[in-house]
Amino acid sequence: MFVAVLTWQSLSVRVPYVALGPGPTVDTLGSVQTDEGEQPIITASEQYRTQSAGKLQLVTVRVYSEVELARAIFYWLSDEYAVVPRELIYPEDQTEEQIAQKQTEQWTQSQSSAETAALRVLGQPVRVVVTQITPGSAAEGVLKPGDVIVAVDGKPVTSAQNLAAQIAAKAPGAERELTVTRDGKEEKLKVKPGDGGQGNAFLGVSLEQKQDNPYDVRINTKGLDIGGPSAGLMFALGIIDRVDATDLTGGLNIAGTGEIDDDGNVGPIGGVAEKVIAARDNGATVFLTPSSNCPAAKSNVPDGLTLVKVNTLDDALNALKALREGRTPELC
Question: Which residues are catalytic?
Answer without folding.
Answer: 230, 275
